[in-house]
Amino acid sequence: MSGIDRKLRKPRWSVLIAALPATVFAAIAMAFLWGLFNNEDSLPSTMIGRDIPEFDLPPIDGRENGLSAADLRGEVSLVNVWASWCVPCRVEMPLLVELAQTKSVPIHGINLKDKPAAARRFLAELGDPYHRIGADSSGRTSIDWGVYGVPETFVIDAGGRIAYKHVGPFDRQSLEDDILPVVRRLQQERGA
């Protein structure tokens, strides 16, 4: 091989190094696309099947009753973690109000890090589906529940255990296909 042929022929490793940035970019782009189009609303929760955390929250100003762990034992119920500053909470509120009107399951609220006046305005504007609301002004109770963000909705069995967790706002389909079947199953088990 002449010296000219050696100079014209590039080493193999330089081609691999040149392709590395494009490969890394493609892998990152695929990960972002998967995240963008993955519509799975349920995140795994270590709390499923466990007793609810012990807590005792005061009511939001203007409400008579707060919320405690003791209030969630004895019947199947929903606990919805919400805040007035949460835009997705506004999206699901009409369905919560509609569900409350059916009286098929008690709905309780944990109001996360909210100003009392803002929480009252939110409920006055959009409706108040809650039997009880506890004001979690520090956010500690929500952390104990394993809340990632608001809104989140939990199905609680009559024994005070978390049976299901829905992350994010629910729509009619997720309410009918995911949340209410768990509620009905637990209510039937309790009645049996």
CATH superfamily of the largest domain: Glutaredoxin
Rounded mean pLDDT is 88
The whole-angstrom Rg is 25 Å
CATH class category name of the largest domain: Alpha Beta
The helicity comes to: 40-55%
Structural class: alpha/beta
Enumerate the strands of the largest sheet in spatial order, edge to edge or round the barrel.
5-4-3-6-7
State the order of secondary-structure elements, H for helix, E for strand: HHEEEHEHEHEEH
Largest sheet: 5 strands, mixed
Written account of the structure:
InterPro entries: Periplasmic_diS_OxRdtase_DsbE, Redoxin, Thioredoxin-like_sf, Thioredoxin_CS, Thioredoxin_domain, Thioredoxin_ResA/DsbE_sf. Its main location: other. The chain is of the alpha/beta class and 192 residues long. Helices cover 44% and strands 16% of the residues. The protein folds into two domains: 3-37; 56-191, Glutaredoxin (3-Layer(aba) Sandwich), CATH 3.40.30.10. The longest helix is centred in the first third of the chain and has 26 residues, at 12-37. The chain starts with a helix and ends with a helix. The relative contact order is 0.18.
